[in-house]
Amino acid sequence: MENEKFSLPNYNIPEDLETIVAITTLDRLYNWGRRSSVWPLMFGLACCAIEMIAAQASRYDMSRFGMEVMRPTPRQADMMLVSGTVTKKMLPAIIRLYNQMPEPKYVVAMGACASSGGPFKEGYNVVAGIDKFLPVDVYIPGCPPTPQALIAGLIKLQEKIDRQSIKKVRWYDRKKEDANYVPMPILGPDLIDVRRNAEIKQAAAAKESAS
Amino acid sequence: MTTPVLTPIADLTARFPGSVTKDERAGYSGFLVAKENLLEVAAAIRDEFGYDLLTAVTGVDYLAENKMEVVYHAYKTTGGPGLVFKVQVDRIDPVTVPSLVNIWPGVDFQEREAWDLLGIKFDGHPDLRRILMWEGYQGHPLRKDWKEPFFEEEVKPFKSRWPDGKHVFAEEKNPFRDNLNFPKNFDPDAYQPEAEKDLYSSLERFTLKSESGLKTDQIVVNMGPHHPSTHGVLRVAVTLEGETIMGLKPVMGYLHRNHDKIGERCTFLQILPYTDRLDYFNSMSNNFGYVITVEKLMKIPVAERAEYIRVIMAELSRIQNHLIFIGMLLNDLGTMYTPSLYAFEERELILDIFEAVSGARMMCNYFRFGGVVRDIPEDVMQKIKGLVQDRLPAKTDEMDRFLSENEVLVGRLKGVHVINAEDAAKFSVTGPVLRAAGVPYDLRRADPYGIYDRFDFDVAVRTHGDMMDNFLIRFDEIRQSLRILEQALKQIPQGPINSQKPQYQVRVPAGEAYGRIESPKGELAYYVVSNGKPNPYRYHVRPPSFVNLTAIEHICRGTKIQDFVALLAMLDIVMGELDR
Ligand code: SF4
Predict the structure, then answer these.
(1) Structural domain boundaries of chain B?
(2) Ligand 1, atom 8: nearest CA belongs to which residue?
């Protein structure tokens, strides 16, 4: 337990016990565990995924920061790295993956496309940013972000985890029905976000032409 | 663009007087075929004139003339120039054209794409479903009168950005306040999504009775779009009998980013960075293909030094692509990570060079009409020389030595997923896969572009067409690329790097051009129609990954599902260009 952030300051632990005893809070213990083993979902969408692979490969070696254990199944993953353009056709699959992830779950939007639609925003099959559907923790700018930028973004995520409190995190909130669930969008004449059905219906009725 | 093998283009008009005419619009070439005679003419083009490789099929919507045109580009696997023929039909719904799928099976997916995006119905196509968008989507996006939800103006630069600069978010102008468009009075609560009945019925599910009287059933398995080894967001629906694949349909479009539509709104120069994002491993080759197409239209020369720089960049790009190919294939065979770490180490060195010349590791945006954007600095030149002369040959040999005779690897690759030369050409397969099947068809030789005719190199070719040959041919190609690079580095002259003045907007005369290059994955071609305006009227990409995938069902029927993942690696698909 050599993480200096782990033990609380101002507690004197006898020197011979320092390596085996730590005095800390539950939050710190949890956060320390979580930030040091972020397991990303092994999943790539577009060009940004290649930089994600490069960040894991020989030169940049992301595992130095404790987040290299890519899991192909969402059931074992903590973090979804949305690496690339989110298209309407792909969106239901992404939402399903997110819903299948157990908590804690974080979302990192890598690149311009995942953050806002990027160069392809005007495209008819492109979702202008994954944050329209999922709660994003960290945005990483770039097209594609360099591996250094990606690693910097993930370190930001770790800093964010450091400040969490299990009492307040979204996924342990009793009051909400199911804070981890995002309703599945439907592919109709266009992408139907079921949370916005009433609004869509109203706008469609108010449309001028029948096109 | 000189073509040394000057085989005369077949004169179709003499063979089919009346039904075939020369296309005499200014800037256009090829022949116009009457719709009624299309099948007959196409069969003659293949059998009598010997054009056995139909590389591209696409449509153009001539809204003002109230016509739809389907454009076919046919070539010979023995090399030489191609034959363009077109069918024009009235733009009344439904627009129908006979399907050529029985003559060149390789048109399968491309016809489906034309149906999906342009709404051209191909009569006689056995499985005409949407391919990039989903069933149930509204409209055919590439029609000129179809507007996307974030439509702002017909062409860029948009006035709101330049010169006025009063930009409003696209969301605020759309009635649905998002990138959405629904038909009038659409009720989302009552909507029943279309099940994918057509997809599954196209897989022909049937029951078998075995000898012992046991009733067995075939099952349908969906792989993807999220699957760790489908090389991106490809999905395949497979019918299995035990572990044997009986039928298979790829489902794509999960990364369809509307490249063509966005391209038609952009100016010629603005398209260039978008091409980087097609095959995102090889932005240099993508640039190359696009600029030579537009240069054909503009009829401008390329600066001598730039010609060499282009070749150097394209070949470096090929080397890193093939190294990654080898790493990924091994990954898919279960050698998790070690070979690909070796590959990535070399790739990083090549990316360093790209970054030094263009400023970006992956999305280089380095080529310009008439040349390239920046010169190669002297120290980078030395680095390239070091790589080409020492490091890369040694590392390639090392990889070869470590892998090629490994018994497990040979066992998994030899004799698996065979495609023979005839079938490969039939399915319009190009690139290393075609050459591994024994057809020495490499555009750098068969239809040279740039200055490839000045270099001494061999076209890598193997004969078995199985996975092993596909694996080995990548090593051959790396070695040939190194040969080309050595010559290019020796011969490269000093001088300007662009024959044109740097300009914001280029003038492109009206006409059509089809430019193609040998990208690391196969024939990458662009079809551009200009009407003299600053934006292309039609802009179409013919991606090798997409067309090569047409053969996939043919290759894997009867093989084991476990090997299928490796087949995707062998075809070397990349979703950015597959779905565009
Ligand atoms: S941000 Fe750029 S690099 Fe990343 S997916 Fe989008 S286009 Fe590709």
Answers:
(1) 1-134+137-182, 259-493+504-578
(2) A47
